[in-house]
């Protein structure tokens, strides 16, 4: 089977954001199932040149943190003119025929893998033109509605509220048209109105990396890593900085890795901002304890998965544990700022004292990989059924049946949040 994997970003060989890590893990699982993959998407400026199986749709600084103010204003203007979510307007520079011509460079393909909403939102024909697999990394309309509630400025709230309304319709349409839907947690399956829908199968995730041996070197006590230019992540970081850090002793060193949108806030001398680090695994390993301070969003938290794969001790909010069945024994759960700070101090003290607070994450990696492969295999079986139906029928699916299966997310009039 030959599938075309469509994403806003082409793989660049060094996945660093949660989105890229998830795409890499999912692509590797397809390959383990014997699927031939080609890729289409945009190239981040400065990234490696596309490979033989990759179709570059253009060069694009797609993340907010890497875009200029004029570029961001341009995205909002284009989104308004075309009645698109801003995330879709970023990638909507090709015509329908132009995109079709570029995708034809992959040769004959059996179907599309649509990774996240951006491409099928910008180019609606993608989800229905061929039997497709939609991978919902998040419930985007819920994340946008949450961002609207958390935004401080009126115009920002209005922008996110607009995104939520548009994304809700987009997600309904894609889920209606796709042959298979994969979410990254059972919670997201329900939030899309797909609980009990046979076409929807949640996926476990893994980073696809083997745990690194501990070299014993510690450069900081508490580590946080993430893409902080993404609003749901930034909410958690801001909560940690405003409410947890002031409750930590001044001798506990906190290091924060990852890109920001704008200038990081001024903070005490025991907190360091490192920006994007070259080796995320090394940063994690150099931490005594990790802080998983998620306060919202949807989807699964890749930094949580990375933490468990490395066997790292951590303090996590309940939201950070979405989609995780078994929490390791060296992880503490806390939702109150004082409790969160106390648990960090407790684990840092134990690690400083030489106690064995790290675990072997290899079993977690194996179980996650097996579950991911099982989910991908189930989705491929459903895709083969859709291909057989298409070959034996008129080539169009029964949209009334599909809309009924899509569930109450189908514009049922309830609060998108």
Write the layout of secondary structure elements.
Blueprint: E1 2-9, H1 18-32, E2 36-43, E3 54-59, H2 69-82, H3 86-89, H4 96-103, E4 111-115, H5 118-122, H6 126-129, E5 132-136, H7 140-150, H8 154-177, E6 180-183, H9 186-191, E7 220-225, H10 231-244, E8 254-257, E9 271-275, H11 280-285, E10 287-292, H12 302-309, E11 314-316, E12 331-333, H13 337-352, H14 362-392, H15 399-406
Helix pairs in contact: 1-14, 7-8, 8-15
SSE string, helices as H and strands as E: EHEEHHHEHHEHHEHEHEEHEHEEHHH
Shape: globular
Strand percentage, roughly?
15-25%
Record the strand order, biggest sheet: 3-2-1-4-5-6
Distance between the termini: 38 Å
Number of helical elements: 15
The description of the largest β-sheet is:
6 strands, parallel
Mean pLDDT: 87
Helical amount: 40-55%
Overall SS class = alpha/beta
DSSP strand count: 12
Catalogue the unreliable spans.
395-417
User: Rg from C-alpha positions?
Assistant: 21 Å
